[in-house]
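Example complex used in Figure S2.
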Amino acid sequence: MNDLLTSGLQGFGPLLAEGTWMTVKLALLALALSLLLGMIGACAKLSRSALLRIPATLYTTLIRSVPDLVLILLLFYSLQIWLNDLTETLGWDYVEIDPFSAGVLTLGFIYGAYFTENFRGAILSVPAGQLEAATAYGLSRAQRFALVLFPQLMRFALPGLGNNWLVLLKSTALVSIIGLADLVKAAQNSGKTTNDMLFFLCIAGLVYLLITTLSNRLLNYLQRRYNTGIKELAR
Amino acid sequence: MIELLQEYGLAYLYSDGSGLSGLAMTLWLFVVSMLLGLLLSLPLALARVSRRAWLRLPVQLYTFVFRGTPLYIQLLICYTGLYSLEVVRDYALLDQFFRNALNCTLLALVLNTCAYTVEIFAGAIRNIPHGEMEAAQAYGLSGWRLNLFLVLPAALRRSLPAYSNELILMLHATSLAFTATVADLLKVARDANAATFLTFQAFGVAAILYMLLSFALVGLFRLAERRWMRFLNPTRG
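Predicted assembly (472 residues):
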């Protein structure tokens, strides 16, 4: 395998592997952040208090109507400028935002809006009687969420979560535009050096294809797990 | 802010002095890729649900590859990858086509949106109620007549909600065009940012324009659904 990587990829195997690792790291961290934001957003959107509901609605509507690439550029450059202003007024040293943290923050923030809608729909699909029964049994708020609501809402949320994860994964390619040394950048650099752009871009495409295929496998497994006890619809 | 709009207002909307730019360019990219993608996806969707493996499998492979890889990679392959082939440079026609950044962008966008649309339509075709097919066959429709008069109209109506989602994502995807030097909305925003350093305002104007476009598209599809999907909602009539 090592042999194939070094000779088959004209010596660019390690560079591509590093890029792949960067892409996977970025995607997973952004996923974790966006799942967290999505859960908070969904609870805020379903809250009785308008103080929580209105900002959450603004968040999902505004973010989902603007292209992710525009938001990435807007946030990446603006965050740096705001941070500079902040450090200057506080008299601190200059802090530079690296493309990786900017990518995690912006992608997490953007896809949090998509996951909010996802979780909101799933929470609404869980029969109200389930939560009422949990309250009647004397479960605390945290127990109600962890033991009753969450396992059931995952069944409804998973198909949408899977789709959004795949979109998020493919969006990480955009972060190379703000200078992150990810899979796309590695392929471009290898292609430029060897004058064989097409070959290396296709390799990068294949790696993405591999990751999405593996993700689909995992999602099918999770779907089966969360469907335990539910009769599959006859096909 | 006012200076930004005075200097770049026209470029944001339709012309940067040397040609189409900004909103008009984004709309042009969107409309052309939508129409070509739609046209191409209709026969491919029929092939995707065909019983014949030699029709079905190539389309399946096509949608698998194009839905499993980022559009940015596809655009790079169309824009820089293919042009590195000697074959492409040797044929005058291919050379001319791939030398033009706009053509490459359109090619990538069309192939990408078509792949998603094929799967949406194929899913809708599979879910046409059996009774409708049987009724059409009882009326003597078969072959291409069945497809033209029943399958496509029935499936297209039912896929309107999913198709509207895909079109909004495609509208957002056109913003990648600037990486191939096409003067779309985002390219104007970047140029304005580079010249004025009003980062938030420069990208903010573009974001607002994209937002308005998205809202307009959502509104149009709501009208279309009210018109063409009314039969699925008889109580509201």
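Residues 158 and 232 of chain B are 9 Å apart (CA to CA). Chain B touches chain A at residues 64-65, 68-74, 76-77, 80-82, 84-85, 169, 171-176, 179, 186, 189-190, 193, 199-200, 203-204, 206-207, 210-211, 214-215 (CB under 8 Å).
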